[in-house]
Specification:
Layout: E1 6-14, H1 20-34, H2 41-58, E2 66-73, E3 78-84, H3 104-111, E4 114-119, E5 125-131
Antiparallel strand pairs: 1-2, 2-3, 3-5, 4-5
Helix pairs in contact: 1-2, 2-3
Length: 137
């Protein structure tokens, strides 16, 4: 099978603050609109927002930023990646301590066709969600 060719690739760093979450939403919506992405832009924005929020809460290390990357293939598939400097891998547990939080990755796993994560050789980890262009059911 030939490799998937990317038609668009974009990345941006954000500070590890809660203000980065709405900023990331704006940037993702803008980028997908410029690319004329045919998938569900609202779902993609929510996926990116949840991944950025998780990085801000669980991946914060003084002096480091998080990275958000979007990649669109020629077949319309979208990859959303968020990298942070912490090497602890996420858990799909659905609930954080005290019953609050912890649902973000469950939301992402429901919206994405695939959700995975990996340790980066240089520093930290990347969480990746793959979204397709959903046609009529």
């Amino acid at each position: 099978m030939p490799p998937t060719l990317l038609t668009h690739d974009w990345a941006m760093s954000f500070p590890m603050t809660t203000r980065s979450v709405p900023d990331a939403r704006v940037q993702v919506r803008r980028r997908l609109t410029l690319w004329n992405w045919t998938g569900d832009v609202d779902d993609a924005v929510l996926v990116a927002s949840e991944l950025v929020a998780n990085a801000v809460v669980h991946g914060k290390v003084p002096g480091h930023q998080l990275w958000l990357r979007l990649k669109k293939s020629e077949c319309g598939e979208l990859i959303v990646e968020v990298s942070d400097p912490v090497r602890t891998l996420p858990r799909l547990n659905g609930q954080g301590p005290g019953g609050e939080g912890g649902r973000g990755l469950l939301i992402v796993s429901e919206l994405a066709e695939e959700l995975d994560w990996y340790l980066r050789a240089e520093l930290g980890k990347t969480v990746r969600a793959r979204l397709g262009t959903r046609g009529p059911n």
